[in-house]
Write a structure and sequence with these properties.
This protein is mainly alpha-helical. Helices cover 69% and strands 0% of the residues. The protein has one domain. Helix 2 packs across helix 5, helix 2 crosses helix 6 and helix 4 packs antiparallel against helix 5.
């Protein structure tokens, strides 16, 4: 356990997670800003906020709560509004994904151990960020495709 905590406290790990989360949020923000009407409609589908608050909603915790509330209501046929190449219906996997992202945000917000970083650390950070973004993209596409695959199997 001590080795895991030491690993998670390493500045390369915390900076890599922070950079990956930053790039991920930038991509998501860009997709939403690119078509604000679609984003506002996706948020409005949750039916949780007054119309005046629909557009500025960007808090991951609020969105995650909205997904969970709608899943409990049985509203699974609406698009999550997450962005990406294809629409993604609500699913508990989205809640789990967002909880993981919140955990990454908590880890990334830590200062990490106070050791000086060398050039290899920065190179490692770039590799970790690209790898984590690749894994995120793969997982997100699998979550998008899962309902379609299940529909075909029936």
């Amino acid at each position: 356990m001590e080795a895991i905590l030491a690993f998670l406290g390493d500045p390369v790990v915390t900076r890599s997670l922070g950079a990956m989360l930053s790039v991920l949020l930038l991509i998501g923000s860009w997709q939403k800003l690119r078509d604000m009407v679609v984003f506002a409609a996706a948020v409005d589908n949750y039916r949780l906020l007054p119309d005046a608050m629909v557009t500025p909603v960007a808090w991951l915790a609020v969105v995650t709560s909205a997904v969970a509330i709608n899943l409990l209501r049985g509203n699974t046929a609406i698009d999550c509004g997450c962005g990406g190449l294809s629409s993604q219906p609500l699913a508990w996997s989205l809640v789990a994904r967002n909880v993981v992202l919140m955990g990454i945000a908590l880890l990334a917000s830590q200062e990490g151990a106070s050791r000086p970083l060398v050039w290899a650390d920065y190179l490692t950070t770039v590799g970790v960020v690209l790898g984590l973004l690749g894994l995120y993209t793969i997982a997100n596409q699998l979550m998008t495709n899962a309902p379609r695959v299940l529909a075909v199997r029936r």
